[in-house]
Design goal:
Helix content of chain B: 10-25%
Structural class of chain A: mainly beta
Shape of chain B: globular
Shape of chain A: globular
Distance between the termini of chain B: 43 Å
Structural class of chain B: mainly beta
Strand content of chain A: 35-45%
Oligomer: heterodimer
Order of helices and strands of chain A: EEEHEEEEEEEE
Helix content of chain A: under 10%
Largest interface: A-B, 53 and 53 residues
Largest sheet of chain B: 5 strands, mixed
Number of helices of chain A: 1
Radius of gyration of chain B: 16 Å
Number of strands of chain A: 11
Strand content of chain B: 35-45%
Largest sheet of chain A: 8 strands, mixed
Number of strands of chain B: 11
């Protein structure tokens, strides 16, 4: 069983995920751009019982356009978001893939909100589902 | 119409970056002096994404408002970088460092603008995730810095 540990930059907040993620996706929406500071966000979802959290976090709650709320947990010392839950995946925990600091992390199979995609970003691959 | 476009292009562009909850913002006047993507492991952890994308401005082009908390990282080079993030929602909105004295760097995503100018430099490609591509003849690709 694969075990991967995500952490914030300063290392005090960690999320250890056991097994493979159910979904790895890229999101180009404006909220994900603001959360990450990057051109898009990329995240992996596991069942909540596959994820073990350690360390202190502060939470921030966002109401999505859908009416769902999403609760983001970030490190109060360095600001990195390490896990979040809610939205349309209440029984799952999403972890920003960058928190694993692993260029070989399984690639995303879904790319959503492409109407907000920066034109200079390409997510190639025959097995990637693209939606606007 | 052509003259209108020319006239508009001489005006100073002002762009607003902010955290997700909106209390911390950075108003940037004029165009950035450099726009880059960085694939290093630290930028991955900061953003949670595959890479960091950021715009560098002269410090006097940027006016920050709101409350921030700072986190200081010492790079492999020994230089320090000070990141300023919103204590309420966690978004990093600006940072500066000894290597970039006199400049303020703003994460591109904080502008929430898909039409923000494209990066011209892509660094630390030794850490690039294989599934993302940054095409464009004008992009400089570097294995490290």
């Amino acid at each position: 069983m694969t075990i991967r540990t995500a952490s914030c930059r300063c290392g005090q907040l960690k999320a250890t995920a056991t097994g493979e993620p159910e979904r790895v996706s890229v999101c180009h929406c404006l909220a994900c751009q603001q959360r990450s500071g990057s051109a898009f966000a990329v995240q992996a979802r596991w069942s909540a019982d596959q994820v073990h959290i350690e360390g202190q976090s502060k939470s921030w709650v966002r109401s999505a356009d859908s009416g769902h709320t999403v609760i983001y947990h970030f490190c109060p010392d360095c600001g990195s978001t390490v896990h979040y839950t809610g939205g349309n995946f209440p029984d799952l925990i999403a972890i920003p893939v960058g928190a694993f600091a692993d260029p070989d992390f399984p690639h995303p199979r879904v790319s959503v909100w492409e109407r907000r995609k920066h034109p200079w970003v390409h997510i190639p691959g025959d097995d990637v589902e693209h939606s606007r | 119409m052509g003259s209108d476009v020319e006239e508009a292009s001489t005006l100073t562009t002002t762009r607003q970056a902010s955290c997700r909850c909106g209390q911390l913002s950075a108003e940037c006047s004029g165009d950035p002096v450099r726009i880059s993507v960085c694939h290093c492991l630290v930028c991955k952890r900061r953003t949670g994404s595959a890479f960091g994308a950021q715009a560098r401005f002269a410090a006097n082009q940027v006016e920050v408002s709101g409350t921030s908390r700072s986190w200081i990282r010492t790079a492999d080079s020994g230089n320090t970088v000070t990141y300023h993030f919103c204590p309420e929602c966690g978004s990093t909105v600006h940072y500066s460092g000894e290597r970039f004295a006199g400049f303020t760097i703003v994460p591109m995503g904080a502008f929430a603008d898909p039409d923000f100018p494209a990066p011209r430099h892509s660094i630390y490609e030794t850490r690039k995730s294989a599934w993302v591509e940054l095409p464009g003849d004008e992009v400089e690709h570097l294995p490290h810095m």
